[in-house]
Amino acid sequence: MASDGHISLRYQRPAESDMRVQAAKLLSEHQSRRSVRHFSCDPIPLDVLHDCIRAAGLAPSGANKQPWTFCVVTDPALKTQIRDAAEAEERAFYRGRAPQSWLDDLAHLGTDHNKPFLEEAPALVVLFAQNRGANGSKHYYISESVGIAAGFFISALHRCGLVTLTHTPSPMKFLGELLGRPASERAFLLLPVGYPASDCEVPDIERKPFAQICVGYHAGAK
């Protein structure tokens, strides 16, 4: 029964057999998901992208404050400005600020300060975290909430046949300046979105085995 300020949950408990089918399907789909740095210039359907953002906006957040803003950039001139600014920050990072241990860990991925994908991808999505609401109200668990929304968004893109990359040029203050965002927002992620280039390659990497990412604590277990 619904009470004041609440509504009844819309939920139908599935059969365990159906749950296993859906879980296996989801796992299979996500096993092919990869971060992509080589994009086709072909345009993407913006209504699909917008629905992926709507799905991301359904993520849980601290006190339901929904402290995120998704900015979609398709203007070529603005994408060029973003690339130029990002590469300037990355150049300084790779040539001076980055510790050697970080450079060593990145070496096998073949990344450097060159970011052509910021112009090649048909859309850039800049995800901002809101430090407070438009009326000055306090937000809670901001990084956790925005991180969850980012995960929803990446998963939605993959399931719709689009690819992306979680790019984090450091620092990212230039994104707020170029996009005219308020001081109450800080750039959280820069995500190029599109189709992979026909000759796209990705690093040959391995994922940790299940036993290294999940630890079970079950009754009766020794």
Summed up, what is this model?
The protein has 222 residues and is an alpha+beta fold. Helix content is 40%, strand content 12%.
Please tell me about this protein's structure:
The chain has 222 residues and is α+β, with helices and mostly antiparallel strands. It has a single domain (37-196), classed as NADH Oxidase, CATH 3.40.109.10. Helices cover 40% and strands 12% of the residues. Helix 2 runs antiparallel to helix 6 (142-159). The protein starts with 15 loop residues before the first helix and ends in a 9-residue tail after the last helix. The mean pLDDT is 94.
User: In total, how many domains does the architecture comprise?
Assistant: 1
CATH superfamily: NADH Oxidase
Question: What's the rounded overall pLDDT mean?
Answer: 94
Compute the separation of the termini in Å: 42 Å
| CATH 2nd-level architecture | 3-Layer(aba) Sandwich
The unreliable regions are none
Strand order of the largest sheet: 1-2-4-3
Instruction: Give the biggest sheet.
Output: 4 strands, antiparallel
Anisotropy-based shape: globular
Provide the CATH topology. Answer: NADH Oxidase
Count of extended strands? 4
Per DSSP, the total helix count is: 8
Order of helices and strands: HHEHHHEHEHEH
- Radius of gyration over all CA atoms, rounded: 20 Å
Query: CATH first level: which class?
Result: Alpha Beta
Helicity range of the residues? 40-55%
Class from secondary-structure proportions: alpha+beta
**Percent in strands:** 5-15%
